[in-house]
Amino acid sequence: MAEYYGLNGEVANTSSGVTIHVEGPSDRIAAFESDLSAKSPPLAYIVDISGQPETVKNFPNFSIVKSKDESEISTLISADVSICEDCLRELLDPNDRRYHYPFINCTNCGPRYTIIDDIPYDRPKTSMRHFKMCPACQAEYDDPSNRRFHAQPNACAACGPRVRLCDNQGNEIAVDDPIPKTANLLKQGYIVAIKGLGGYHLATDAENTDAVLRLRVRKLREEKPFAIMSYDPDHIRRYAEIAPDEMRLLTSIQRPIVLLRKKVPNSISDEVAPHNNYFGVMLPYTPLHYLLLKNGFIALVMTSGNLREEPIAIDNADAFKRLADIADFFLIHNREIYLRSDDSIVRHIAGTKRFIRRSRGFVPIPVFLKNKMLPILACGAELKNTICITKNDTAFLSQHIGDLENLATYDFFQLTIHHLKRILEITPEIIACDMHPDYLSTQYAQEQSNIQKIQVQHHHAHIVSCMTEHKLDGPVIGLSLDGTGYGPDHTVWGGEVLVAEQHAFERVGHIACVPMPGSTAAIKEPWRMAVSYLRDAYGSEFRNLNLKPVSEIADEKLTIISAMMTKGVNSPLTSSLGRLFDGVAAIIGIRQRVNFEGQAAMELEMLSADSTSEIYDYEWISGDMLKILPAPIIRGVVDDLQNGMTVAEIGAKFHETVIQLFADVCGVMRKERHLKRVVLSGGCFQNAFLLTGLIQALEKKNFEVFTHQQVPANDGGLALGQAMVAAAQIRRD
Asked: I need a labelling partner for 338 at 20 to 30 A (CA). Which of 11, 112, 571, 605 fits?
């Protein structure tokens, strides 16, 4: 750009940003500065441009100088993004020197975050430092007019990383080109572990039911949907619907997994996403993916390379150790991955993109804050864990870490904290965590010495995370609706109406509590919650009802469960909307046991009719605390079921009831507290029926409604709220 405008000077990467010195006529410098933001390349994310006069040094030309380390790092680190159109054309051009080279990239695409060891972002501080550029690549790297000018991962077949095909014992298979051979193995029904951008995938032919079932058995993943990848949108249209907004998500440079409605019938195996109306679909984002998929697949299963809830494998030796019992073959490469990053998952709901998982492609782009704040580390929740580190007016959320239920994930959690602290050069002064004493993330925080610790209530953090996205100051009405969160009263919260500010909250309403017989067992066996809600609605007479949770459970077991609830033995009280969804799903016969978190509620959403004008009777007890009674709703569900109403009709009616109920509760709070802003957060708002309907119902009542757009509504966004609550409390002190 400087050469275009005839300007001389220099540019340098520094820890605090990019420093540009230009000399020339003022009108050209003004045009140059304007174009910096208006014509920036795809991966550029410009936060601010500031200028000041400098002494003319009479530079003979314009050049890039060696990066400069400074005392404070504030440069943003780019996320990993998909191969660009220019590189894709070269990849598929037989006359190009990088024809079929699976690591083709340029300044506009390719790996970034997952290969960075330190900043400033230069080749010696990435995993590409092990590959010396050949003369041809070096010439591109040094040429300002070339698309690969200072592209740090620049390489070709002569000097860069290479792929190898191995059996599951690590023995290399001699073959001229490993990629077509891998495609043939996939067509034969084999499972292949493929090293990608942020870790390993486990791949198999999505049309081959035997192969998909074998993958489920080996991976210990009974019914949770698998993600699939297709070569282009035309292939996807053969099995899924693509709305225009969904197309934009699919083809964005981040290439997330997008939830798309299935076409019926379709050729994809029923075992890819059983009992689900949607496929999780992504387009290729690496050259290797394109080279595999061009071999005639409608779609490949591309699921995380791990066993159940372990972190995905990123290291070759570790992959052979952990995945050898799952994969038949391994397609590996010798470019190191420094930090694993799962695929992001999004869904288009209520007019915008909603994150289910925010990871590859979006991390580590920060959330920009309203005010500068102290450096804070927030440790997140137990499930869907992410961590957050704040610096000045930015909050950096980590990639998806996972469920902190095993040592491997806990090690990844600690590694992520260490890595982000180092590459961002942040030494936290405060550490924030959840109130739940048994969370590993909470225990980690409590074990840290010489740092101030602040525990943040789970549902308060949810609401504040959404407030932060919208730069809201309180107070607001917060509807925090999810499955589980530790309440200060030692009950399990999850159906909460809060009046929230950043530094504090007041619980003004909630779903009336019922017991969770068996505690966490009630999450895995929704019939237990059904029994609890039926007992709450009918007393001991519930055992006379001809319902699956009653008729399919042995009398002796029902007697034990009833006694547990009566005596309060291993039966914590819960106000959770997630558990109410589970209970209704079990009552109407959808699912008595689940194989993954939220499965019953998800299937209730999937099986519900699109809309209804009918609702169940509902009521609440007023007073110091508004308590929503589930019993009238449960009795209405049972009556409809016994009168022959379909599951689809009951499901829609139940959803509509929840929508109208909470909209009316907000109306009460507006009268009492004179508040008109409503913030929606919590895992229940991944439900498109609930989220869309509640937004519409609240806006119809002239509320201002705020929902998540930058971070997940589920626990994946919780760390952001924890950090902001901690900062607000420190400011108050």
From this structure: 11
